[in-house]
Design a protein that fits this description.
Radius of gyration: 17 Å
CATH topology: Rossmann fold
Order of helices and strands: EEEHEHEHEHHHHHHHEHEH
Structural class: alpha/beta
Number of helices: 12
Number of strands: 8
Strand content: 15-25%
Strand order of the largest sheet: 1-2-4-3-5-6-7-8
Shape: globular
Length: 259
């Protein structure tokens, strides 16, 4: 798959774009990942949509940056939609990519046609707990990245995709996430953001008992606030949505895009 670069004037964002016509669909990966996390579903999505998949700042082959607060990611996303896609777009964000997608829909509604939220935490407490649980290994990875000891990441994680993604991640982003949580994620105020989202929304989530970051109680609150929302729960999945049979998920997305 061919990768291209988009210049925001502040930095370069690496991205994949399909050649198929259809409704524009922008894919946003989660923290410390890259656009290839969507590879299991991209071939299916390109059959009915024009797919764009970004490496976010500091991730994959995109430029490293001086700032990693969520508001800067949202600014990059808006630049990409306005200056490259040039029309209102459906955004599908997974994990923290879903957080960014929700912020974009709330703050820039004219550019977001609809929103697909893939197992993104709907309360910062959930993300804080996850980060606290991974802090020890994260600090080691940050040190290895700064010392360019990439082989240590592969040897420790024993997961080639995650290891490769982390090996391409800016250690300053990981430091921002683990050492400066409030500053990095503080603008993600769900209580304020949810009432601002007026476009159609599709929640795709796993089972909380298997590691989903979308708690039932938080989803119930969101369903009561959002005017046009559908919630789909995959009981056999956890937080990572693309590791098994994706056919059911693809059908849900296809049906949702008939908006």
């Amino acid at each position: 798959m061919t990768e291209l670069f988009f210049n925001t004037n502040a930095l370069q964002l690496n991205y994949f774009e399909s050649s198929d016509a259809g409704i524009p669909l922008l894919l946003l990966h989660g923290s410390s990942s890259r656009w290839q996390t969507f590879l299991p579903i991209i071939p299916h999505l390109t059959k009915f949509s024009h797919v764009y998949a970004l490496d976010l700042r500091g991730h994959g082959k995109s430029s490293r940056a001086a700032q990693y607060q969520l508001s800067f990611f949202v600014e990059d996303i808006c630049h990409f939609i306005q200056d490259h896609i040039k029309k209102p777009t459906v955004i599908f964000g997974h994990s923290s990519g879903g957080m960014m997608a929700m912020m974009t829909a709330a703050l820039h509604p004219a550019w977001v046609k609809a929103l697909i939220v893939g197992d993104a935490p709907l309360h910062l407490q959930v993300l804080q707990q996850l980060i606290d649980s991974e802090c020890e290994i994260a600090q080691r990875i940050i040190a290895w990245l700064r010392d360019r000891k990439i082989d240590q990441i592969y040897a420790t994680l024993q997961n080639d995709f995650r290891a490769e993604s982390l090996s391409q991640c800016d250690p300053n982003f990981l430091s921002a996430m683990f050492d400066h949580f409030d500053d990095t994620f503080g603008s993600y105020d769900v209580e304020k953001l949810l009432p601002m989202i007026q476009c159609p929304v599709l929640f795709l989530r796993g089972n909380e008992a298997q590691g989903s970051l979308m708690r039932d109680v938080d989803v119930a609150h969101a369903l009561a606030v959002l005017p046009r929302v559908k919630d789909v729960k995959f009981d056999g999945l956890g937080h990572h949505l693309f590791g098994g049979d994706v056919s059911g998920m693809v059908e849900e997305i296809k049906e949702f895009l008939q908006i």
